[in-house]
Request: fold
Amino acid sequence: MLESNKDSAKLDAMKRIVGMIAKGKNASELFPAVVKNVASKNIEIKKLVYVYLVRYAEEQQDLALLSISTFQRALKDPNQLIRASALRVLSSIRVPIIVPIMMLAIKEASADLSPYVRKNAAHAIQKLYSLDPDQKEMLIEVIEKLLKDKSTLVAGSVVMAFEEVCPDRIDLIHKNYRKLCNLLVDVEEWGQVVIIHMLTRYARTQFVSPWKEDDGLEDNEKNFYESDDEQKEKTDQKKKPYTMDPDHRLLIRNTKPLLQSRNAAVVMAVAQLYWHISPKSEAGIISKSLVRLLRSNREVQYIVLQNIATMSIQRKGLFEPYLKSFYVRSTDPTMIKTLKLEILTNLANEANISTLLREFQTYVKSQDKQFAAATIQTIGRCATNISEVTDTCLNGLVCLLSNRDEIVVAESVVVIKKLLQMQPVQHGEIIKHMAKLLDSITVPVARASILWLIGENCERVPVIAPDVLRKMAKSFTNEDDLVKLQILNLAAKLYLTNSKQTKLLTQYILNLGKYDQNYDIRDRTRFIRQLIVPNEKSGALSKYAKKIFLAQKPAPLLESPFKDRDHFQLGTLSHTLNTKATGYLELSNWPEVAPDPSVRDVEVVELAKELIPAGKAKKENPAKKFYSESEEEEESSDSSSDSESESGSESGEEGDSSEDSSEDSSSEQDSESGSESKGENKRTAKRNSKIKEESDSEDGEKENEKSKTSNSSNAESSSIEESSSDSESESESESEIESESRKVTKEREKKTKQDRNPLAKDISLLDLDDFNPVSTPVALPTPALSPSLIADLEGLNLSTSSSVISVSTPVFVPMKTHVLLHRMSGKGLAAHYFFPRQPCIFGDKMVSVQITLNNTTDQKIANIHIGEKKLPIGMQIHVFNPIESLEPEGSITVSMGIDFCDSTQTASFQLCTKDDCFNVNIQPPVGELLLPVAMSEKDFKKEQGMLTGMNETSTVIITAPQNFTPSVILQKVVNVANVGVVPSGQDNIHRFAAKTVHSGSLMLLTVELKEGSTAQLIINTEKTVIGSVLLRELKPVLSQG
Reply:
């Protein structure tokens, strides 16, 4: 096919070959046949040939060299993709002979009009440098030229080349520093990572430490009690107060928006930049972003948790608010579990230790034995770090000694040994208990630990110690080497303290050790014999034998394994491996005096101002607002006027260069569509963050649904575009109208925010559900917004579910009643209750309950009312009005509202009459905590797709086929749960939807019929507890005939 005259056959052949390469198959044998087509006039064939050659040029160097002239001609091809591909192939032929040709090609490509070709030139620089390091000086000239490039497409690649070839040439960055800071937000994600790491190193060499500011504050606190004269002298001696360099502030401010990036590597890079170069008071914002990354796959989690573990040692306060995010899940792999344990240990303090210890108790019972053992070590570390709980931990570990699992017992023994060593108090009972375990424990480390403990405390247990030695002498030959060494030590200690009872035993053990196979044990035996058994040959040391063996041992220091990792830059391979990796560039210490900042001043800024029309400068401000919205609060809090003027000048520079970059990028063929979509995403994210801020105050209940859709900017933009219109012009005009209306109501909104919440935070993509502690919602005053703006905000609501999903009427209302009070217990007053499945008139978070009261006596019952209420936290009851009297044989029905807080907990209260009070309980079936919901099949699938993983529970049902007819399934499901029917296009799938009464969380129920007499029941909901209870209730109902 490759030798065919038809281009279509060649193209088909090349597609198949590239497909083989993509699948990992070897296609190197076809190299001669493919290389012939490198001169093809068909652009599509040529592109695929170049893709093939890039892959195999290094393996088939001789054949590739034959086509060198073709590649050189292709470097002048009018198509930018062909020029770039030719350069890639040329740089992939790793033969020293063609180095001059490659050098010439790179120089030409670096001046190419296409940014895509210039980007490939930057990639080729690294390949040429690895082939011939002698070309370094010439390559640095090309890098210097490319660093001045204003295209966002080139920036990341050239900085990568700079890092590979000449990372020490900081002088090349000076003039381009501000441009790189301003372009950063528009560079592709992997370019952002490289630039941020490079700028972190640059900042550490060019700016003074911002941490001095914090030190100064501490000094002021210490000097509080000094007299005025002393204070004055000290302030005169002190240096002038720290003022942050405007370029330093520019870097910190321009990287902040990237904390909302969808790429985990970008977020991690920004986090390490804040950790290494920002003031400690500003580093707190990275914690929420890093916790957000814990929702990613396990590989990302592993790296993020390692970095959090290092950070949490130095600054506990950063991650303490998110303690629950580090709780271990049963689905986590062991490596993630151990890292979470490490972080929990670092965050432990007197306030939260009781909660953590309860959590650790659960972990110890885990089926993962390695994790259970790590938990026991963690408990030991907490006990040493927090003296208040040492005894509690010690008692808990002693209880674990009776555990059935040998590994748990062994680990407990080792940790107890360390704790007892740290507390040289009388713990004779624990030592006696551990001595008894020697008969059952087989793990060598645990046996050795017990023997060591008995040896150290042999004077405190004088009766048990010799008996333990006797047992060990019997089994000496079968023991592990580690245990044998401890038996020898125990024998020596007992010989020195209780020679009357143990002299013969010690000699017997020393004789056994003398002929042992292990040379360590033989050496130890000879050493001990000479030391403790005095004879004429023994030296002066034998006098001090007791002091040597029974000396006071220093307690072991239980430290975090991440303690020494902070000298590596966070987020690097070296930090992960805890050893210096090849190519690692160390962070330098802060300079005492900052180098001259004027080296970063460039004339390019002034030229750019001349190029930009006067009208554009004014338009820049609203766009800039997106990136500085969250900084406004921070900058306003800065008392120094210097910093304000600095930031003003920076914003001007930033605006100019960002306009330049947008003009450049608009002329690029490949990046046009990308920049458009990015701009759209930015506008949308800005609009959504404001909308969310307003709507949160109006409607607290919809918070969960909103946060679901705020996980990615793509999801936001797509949902808004779908709900409004498909045409771009309409959406653009909407955004303009939105911005106009926002300007009009700006002052009013500001006043409202101040009244509503003086400490209001910016709402962003990072504000996710589980970051906020669960608490009862607080009613907030309604914001003073114009009705037209409120209507606009409702139309642009983040949550698509509000417009599509609505509460419907119940499909079926079971008339089953439950006994509230039996007539015998109620002295003639009987009470029954049932759930009418209607929205409650007393509150939209309450479940409606109807109670029927019967008087079975022959006398009036007066003043029937609700007395004392004993309710769990958060639960509320709206009681019925007191009934003055109930006639004999009379009956009356009353309504109540109960907020069960989406749980099946019992509502306990007293039903009282004039003379008596009776304790009664109402426990709701889980199906009555729901309200039916009407939604389309499309919306059902969309919501179900967002509620997978931990939010999904399923089970298999086996029953007769006649029980799987649609009518039978519908009857059984709606009888158990108050759900709405979702129309389904498939006969074998039945869907039902509801939402919980209290929180409004969706409950999606699917019954999928399989072959034969089986079906799968799936429930998707955020409320996993309710979901699993409902699953347990539905399974037997659907299974029975």
